Amino acid sequence: MRVLKALQSLMFALVLTIITLALINVGYAQVRSSASYQLQSDSINIGGGLGSSTSYQQESTISEVATGQSTSTNYQLRAGYQQMQEVYVSLSVTGDVTMSPDLPGLTGGTSNGSTTFTVITDSPAGYELTIEAENDPAMQSGIYTIADYNAGADPDYSFLTASNEAHLGYSPEGVDVVQRFLDDGGSCNTGLLNTSLACWDGLTTTPVQFARGGGSNHPDGATTTVHFRVGVGSAAGVVAGVYTATTTVTALPL
Fold this sequence. Notes:
Number of helices: 1
Order of helices and strands: HEEEEEEEEEEEEEEEEEE
Number of domains: 1
Structural class: mainly beta
Largest sheet: 12 strands, mixed
Oligomer: single chain
Shape: elongated
């Protein structure tokens, strides 16, 4: 009966599943640089160096002062040349996205949802956030799909849906949104504005950077909201069903 009712009314529901990854690597801040080289960190000591064998690699310094690890309730300090290279990054998300409202396939319409990502890092060079879809196109219901939004070289300032189109797009919003999603009030990838619900792009199975912060933001962190929108034209002919898109958002320290 549920299937029959869904087919008669051509209603379909939309859900996005968000997978978050926070990866830790070595930051790349530097204390000396030139046109050809960067010196990441320096040390005043009387010896040490890099040693290796078939199975192991060791890097050491001799006679460095004030080195080691110190901690308190709120902070952690790694002092010295060998201690300082590790950085911390965390990524939290408000949850999966259930798009609303469900859409009638006979007349079409627009369905919206959003989720917020918070990144905390002590990396001196900052962090980046990327997003990628698990499938191509991202939103699927069995053998049926809804296309990814096709914005072209730059995102579309407005979300545009022709009568014969059905597609899923996203738009990031926050203090660290990258230039591609900034606008001048009418066009994207230009200007310094981050207008709410503007600059729409389509998901891909290749990671796309949508936020990048410079410098440490510990302990407060930085938040970025990603808005998702599905548009269905009145003549798109979308088959009734529950459509799901799974995306992976990755945070990396720089």
